[in-house]
Amino acid sequence: xxxxxxxxxxxxxxxxxxxxxxxxxxxxxxxxxxxxxxxxxxxxxxxxxxxxxxxxxxxxxxxxxxxxxxxxxxxxxxxxxxxxxxxxxxxxxxxxxxxxxxxxxxxxxxxxxxxxxxxxxxxxxxxxxxxxxxxxxxxxxxxxxxxxxxxxxxxxxxxxxxxxxxxxxxxxxxxxxxxxxxxxxxxxxxxxxxxxxxxxxxxxxxxxxxxxxxxxxxxxxxxxxxxxxxxxxxxxxxxxxxxxxxxxxxxxxxxxxxxxxxxxxxxxxxxxxxxxxxxxxxx
Length: 283
Prior knowledge:
The protein has helices at residues 3-15, 109-115, 130-149, 176-188, 200-205, and strands spanning 24-25, 35-44, 47-50, 52-53, 67-70, 76-86, 92-100, 123-128, 154-159, 164-169, 193-199, 223-230, 237-242, 257-266, 269-276.
């Protein structure tokens, strides 16, 4: 049996426990944590699974993080994307998969990982592309400001490092300049952003907290993560909703974001597209 075949057999044994593998999501508590030490717990066709990570996986409309894994010998393995793990039935697991930048996109991900020398049990440093993540954080918080300015249900969302968009379930027209001015006003007001949580029962009692028609907050743990903008003490509450994404700590950190266009996607959908103003991209 070849060395690669031996490795594949060892990986199969680990994969048998893959459904039970959990990755500690450090970004849930601290979106500003740019790196962490971690241990490789599984190598799969979906990527590298770690016991803990700062990499946010694609979800809730927000793009997955990119960055590098620094190996024990100093080599860096580029991470092109991050996704939630899936089991054989296609259901999400508690694992977070770091998809490596592949030399041959058509070849087996697992074979390329095994040839890299990376093994289960190895210690690595997981380091995100911070500049890219920070743009995602700024855009994500801006989409919550839009939910305040346009108090309608959302039926689509996409947050990338270069632009963001929200699809609102509405028929009335929207004014691009008025929305841009509204965002600028909320940014200048330096509203603090707080991460907290509510129980399943609290959400059941306040279903209007969910702004999305297409994505429901995950349940099962008994606690649902929330993002609150403003509303500290006597301050005006700007937005409060369940959200698992990464956000800035204060609206002032968003910088200059403008509405680049508004599209009528259907008779009942208005799409608002956001972009960074010139000079604000690298803030």
